Amino acid sequence: MPGGARRCPAAAGGGRRRPAVSDGARSSPRVGAAAGSAPARVRRLLRHPREVALRIVFAGTPDPAVPSLRALLASGHEVVAVVTRPDAPTGRGRRTVPSPVARVAADAGLPLLQPASARTAAFRDELAGLAPDAAAVVAYGAILPRPVLDVPRHGWVNLHFSLLPAWRGAAPVQAAVRAGDPITGASTFRLEEGLDTGPVYGTVTEPVGPRDTAGDLLGRLAVSGAALLVATLDALADGSARPVPQPADGVSLAPKIALTDARVRWAEPAFAVDRAVRSVTPEPGAWTGSAWGRLVLGPVLPTDVTGLAPGELRVERRRVLAGTGTTAVELGSVLAPGRRSMPAADWARGVRPEPGTVLGRGDDEGPADPTAVRGAGAVSAAETGTGTGIGTGTGSGPAPSAVPTDGPAGGR
Questions:
Q1: Which residues form the Formyl transferase N-terminal domain (predicted)?
Q2: Which helix (H) or strand (E) holds 88?
Q3: Backbone angles phi and psi of 224, in degrees to 5
Q4: Any alpha helices (H) in 109-246, and if so which ranges?
Q5: Please, are residues 177 and 275 in contact by the beta-carbon 8 Å criterion?
Q6: Distance from C-alpha of 93 to C-alpha of 49, rounded to nearest angstrom
Q7: Which residues define the annotated binding site?
Q8: 125 CB-near residues (< 8 Å, 6+ apart)
Q9: Which of 35, 131, 269, 374 registers the highest number of CB atoms within 10 A of its CB?
Q10: Where are the alpha helices (DSSP H) in 74-117?
Q11: Cα separation of 373 and 99, whole Å?
């Protein structure tokens, strides 16, 4: 087989339920988007995968891309190569390690392409030599130029973790949590040179729980999105895919999160502090300045306690409270410099904060983004059923809010 790629085992039989793939109309924004049994054309595809199997190049880098690669390896399609970012230094020792996707590809015995730049003619020629029918991309981490996008005859299918056109950009899941979107999801769309602007093939939706962190939500979307990606490629293979242009309304952006964006702004309302902290958990982690150095905080819990100034600490027997612009929040875990993460009450017993101690004093307490916080009385497009948001990709779902995606530009 060309390039040493192996034939992947066929998928399970026709009883498998599939995420919805658009046939020209919007898919309904239901959890899992697996409404009813698989269409007859998909059942036929599953029974006879070799008749319509595609040669696939997969591009991805971090952990959220791994479920999609594994799903493709278990499908009826042939993964002929994997493209991922070069090995990078990580951890305190700055040891160079392969990406999570690179490790899975190595275990599967797949050819691995790790170009320093996807813009070179050499990479384009190497890709063309694989003769892919389609390419799938999930959080690759680099822009793919037009000559590369033009190589596969079916183009590049991007799995994006939002309901497009909401939350285009590098951090859609974080944006959905920070905005308080009740529903988000994942979309597959044809990659083009614009930022997540291509026509949408299909979507799945996922409710956002009141205590979900970005990590929790992304973990679920990585799994449901993987099934959506395989279903999209199945539809491309049998000719039933009908990409739908994204609507002009409901567009919101989710740029990459900088470390400064993860600073806790204690002057904001308690609900906004809660959302902001969960939106950057586990990465990069919410932080605040203090007399003990920079503290990294785990999720906080809003309370009805009043009387504390923004950032002011109150240590009680079993909990530690911090003031906000409205009511206090209960601190969860605290990670101090050079220490391990521990419950806030244990941390406070060790450092014994003086009464009136204030976290973040001297920091600019203005909002990180004026669109990142919605007041309790505001109504989102998701709540009125008119916008779009992370996850569906067909123009239904949560509305604009604020925070990072996967780019066109290929490759988030």
A1: 55-232
A2: strand 88-90
A3: -65, -35
A4: 121-129, 146-149, 172-179, 214-238
A5: yes
A6: 46
A7: 162-165
A8: none
A9: 374
A10: 100-108
A11: 34
Single-letter residue type at 408: P
Tokens standing for residue 305? 């306690």
Instruction: Specify binding-site residues for (6S)-5,6,7,8-tetrahydrofolate.
Output: 162-165
Q: Is the overall model pTM greater than 0.70, yes or no?
A: yes
Q: Provide φ and ψ at 120, rounded to 5°.
A: -80, 150
Q: Identify the weakest region by mean pLDDT among 128-142, 328-342, 392-406.
A: 392-406
Please report, as a single letter, which amino acid is at residue 139: A
Tokens representing 190 are 């044809």
- Residue 257: phi and psi, rounded to 5, are -85, 130
Pick from 409, 391, 31: which is nearest to 181 by CA?
391
401 burial level (CB within 10 Å; 0-12, 13-18, 19+): buried
> What do you get for the CA distance between the two ends of the chain, in Å?
29
Which residue in the block uniquely carries the two structure tokens 């390039």?
A: 3
- Token pair for residue 191? 């990659």
In one letter, which amino acid is 93?
G
Residue with tokens 């590369």: 148
CA dihedral 273, 368, 210, 62 (to 10 degrees): -120
**Cβ contacts of 289 within 8 Å, gap of 6 or more:** 295, 359, 360, 361, 362, 363
- In DSSP terms, 349 is beta-bridged to none
- Domains in the chain (CATH in brackets) are 2-248 (3.40.50.170), 264-351 (3.10.25.10)
Output the CA torsion sign for 101, 105, 110, 113. Answer: positive
CB 193 within 8 A of CB 146: yes
**Statement: residue 63 has pLDDT above 80:** yes
User: Which tens digit of pLDDT belongs to each residue from 290-344?
Assistant: 999 999 999 999 999 999 999 999 999 999 999 999 999 999 999 999 999 999 9
pLDDT at 101: 98
Only one residue has tokens 């905080």, namely 297
Taking phi first (over 0 means left), then psi (-120 to 50 degrees means alpha), and beta for anything else, what does residue 317 get?
A: alpha
